[in-house]
Amino acid sequence: MNIIPITSSHWFQIEQVQHAAYGDAFPESIAVLKSKVAASPQTCFVCIDDQQVVVGYLISHPYHKGSTPKLHQTMTIIDSVHLHLHDLAITTTSQRQGLPTLLLNHLFTVLNTMTYQSISLISVQDSAKFWGKFGFISDNTLATPTTYGDNAVCMSRPI
Known about the structure:
It is built from four helices and seven strands; from the N terminus they run E-H-H-E-E-E-H-E-H-E-E. By secondary structure, the protein is an alpha+beta fold.
């Protein structure tokens, strides 16, 4: 498995991974996802297998500390020392192979060379326990947009 930056050739596969991971619950348009990647391409990656097939992706971008982005909202470039981990998704056939850890460790390595001070996310699909393994804790200072569903949890951690 290799982790590489997202390029234009990956979008169709990213869309497939997104739909497989979330069904009809959370998928965003490619235009919205592209705007998030454009805001911080150095913190967005795909994981590809030996056949160059996208088996997972991670999209994160700067955002205002103390607030959370809504789904389906295009991003503009924001100057911030806070990063929002917008999405991490893995194909169902690649689960249980450690790909989320691989992608997150890659992100944290990249962040060591940058000036970000904290990172937040919105946990969906009862994934808070998973995120806790990476140092994220529930953050009641953040408001969860209703578009993420009733069980969504805002989480954050220092970098």
